[in-house]
């Protein structure tokens, strides 16, 4: 019950009235949401087919896929710190984000050139994640600096809703191409990769044309330095955020594992594989903005923990013998709710704790810890699947989520703002 009062924005004169909420969010968040929407169409076209490509076409084992899946998110995690630090140091968050979006777009062409070489595919994936690592923290910092604190949950929720609209459309586009050309044809995958590149290029045009950089704050260069970053890490509130991100990352396995498990259990044809991502992202799209608004009212910590409760439900359902359409829909609904309740909420929880001069760097620290933990989790889950089977691996994942929820509840038992200073 105490958790329900944690991290709830105080109602004061600075808070906008309910009818002014949309206006308070402003055009910059909408523009960033449009960029993410288009980018996610591009990225999810690829993400939706990669597990299929690796496991069915390249015949990779679950352990090998777990390594590549972990690489896809975690291997370039430290570049998030580079991007965050450069953005804070130069106050050019839009420029740093643009470089990240550009690198990811070019990597889509690299997937075509890599062919069936696992080493080349791994190198291209590192390039793609380099771009994501550079852009994520500057983008989230721009969102947090574009709105007042009482509506951070709504702003991140709206952005994630637009982002998930792209994630909903991307797998549908991939499904159309696979159906048109053939799910097992190399030409079909090349068509997906090239179309993905073209869509990513459009997102960069929208970013450059419509997103405004936030240059209102001015600080001395020495206020953004390696020493100041060290002082930031020593703050108890920031350390608790980093511990939280690490615990939650360790309890999260890749989407591909969930969808491969569902495909094998239900004997779903390979060409329909992208529909699992479509279902998850549809639920995410519908719930991201409402849950962000609810988090602003009831507290962001309870929302975060509730989201991981939904992830626990996903892993438990994967462990049960339940199959068929109803069970699959239930898994995807829980999975989409998990993302809607946690993705933007964690950044909204972090924003008030981080000083504006180091906002991007602080967000990058949290994201880096979470990405490195995810790398470990993905590799471990793939190895467990190969050694003991999918059911046992899912049981272990469910236990990890329960432990992470319990430890996170302790870490966030006090408001983070109480420890925002050294």
Mean pLDDT score: 80
Q: Helix count?
A: 15
User: What portion of residues is helical?
Assistant: over 70%
Largest sheet: none
From the helix content, strand content and strand pairing, which structural class follows? mainly alpha
| β-strand amount | under 5%
Order of helices and strands: HHHHHHHHHHHHHHH
Low-confidence stretches: 1-20
* N-to-C span: 28 Å
Question: What characteristic shape results from the CA principal axes?
Answer: globular
Q: Could you tell me the number of beta strands?
A: 0
Instruction: Report the radius of gyration as a whole number of Å.
Output: 20 Å
Oligomer: single chain
Task: Give the secondary structure arrangement, pairings included.
Elements: H1 21-57, H2 62-74, H3 78-90, H4 93-114, H5 118-145, H6 152-181, H7 186-210, H8 226-234, H9 236-250, H10 255-266, H11 274-298, H12 300-319, H13 325-350, H14 359-388, H15 390-411
Helix pairs in contact: 1-6, 1-7, 2-5, 2-14, 3-4, 3-5, 3-14, 4-5, 4-7, 5-14, 6-7, 6-11, 6-13, 9-14, 9-15, 11-12, 11-13, 12-13, 12-15, 14-15
Structure description:
By secondary structure, the protein is an all-alpha fold. The chain has 15 helices and no strands. The radius of gyration is 20 Å and the shape is globular. It starts with 20 loop residues before the first helix and ends in an 11-residue tail after the last helix. The model is unreliable at 1-20 (pLDDT under 50).
Short overview:
With about 425 residues, the chain is mainly alpha-helical. About 75% of the residues lie in helices and about 0% in strands.
């Amino acid at each position: 019950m105490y958790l329900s009062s944690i991290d709830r924005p105080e109602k004061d004169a600075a808070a906008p009235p309910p009818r002014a909420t949309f206006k308070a969010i402003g055009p910059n968040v909408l523009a960033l949401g449009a960029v993410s929407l288009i980018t996610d169409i591009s990225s999810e076209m690829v993400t939706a087919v990669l597990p299929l490509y690796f496991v069915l076409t390249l015949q990779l084992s679950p352990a090998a896929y777990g390594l590549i899946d972990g690489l896809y998110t975690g291997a370039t995690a430290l570049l998030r710190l580079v991007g965050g630090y450069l953005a804070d140091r130069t106050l050019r968050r839009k420029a740093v984000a643009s470089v990240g979006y550009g690198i990811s777009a070019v990597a889509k062409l690299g997937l075509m050139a890599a062919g069936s070489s696992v080493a080349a595919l791994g190198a291209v994936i590192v390039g793609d994640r380099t771009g994501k690592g550079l852009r994520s923290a500057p983008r989230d910092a721009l969102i947090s600096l574009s709105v007042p604190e009482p509506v951070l949950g709504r702003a991140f929720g709206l952005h994630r809703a637009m982002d998930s609209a792209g994630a909903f459309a991307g797998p549908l586009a991939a499904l159309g191409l696979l159906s048109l050309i053939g799910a097992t044809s190399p030409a079909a995958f090349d068509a997906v990769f090239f179309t993905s590149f073209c869509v990513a290029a459009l997102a960069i045009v929208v970013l450059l044309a419509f997103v405004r950089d936030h240059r209102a704050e001015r600080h001395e260069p020495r206020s953004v330095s390696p020493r100041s970053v060290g002082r930031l890490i020593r703050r108890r509130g920031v350390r608790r955020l980093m511990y939280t991100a690490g615990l939650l990352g360790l309890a999260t396995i890749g989407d591909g594992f969930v969808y491969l498990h569902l495909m094998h259990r239900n004997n779903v044809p390979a060409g329909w594989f992208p529909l699992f991502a479509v279902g998850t992202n549809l639920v995410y799209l519908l719930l991201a903005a409402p849950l962000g608004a609810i988090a602003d009212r009831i507290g962001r910590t309870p929302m975060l923990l509730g989201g991981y409760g939904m992830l626990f439900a996903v892993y438990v359902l994967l462990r049960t013998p339940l199959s068929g359409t109803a069970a699959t829909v239930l898994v995807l609904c829980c999975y989409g709710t998990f993302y809607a309740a946690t993705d933007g909420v964690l950044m909204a929880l972090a924003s008030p704790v981080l000083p504006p001069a180091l906002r991007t760097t602080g967000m990058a620290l949290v994201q880096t810890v979470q990405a490195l933990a995810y790398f470990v989790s993905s590799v471990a889950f793939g190895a467990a699947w190969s050694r003991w089977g999918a059911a046992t691996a899912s049981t272990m994942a469910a236990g990890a989520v329960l432990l992470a929820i319990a430890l996170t509840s302790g870490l966030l038992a006090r408001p983070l703002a109480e420890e925002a200073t050294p």
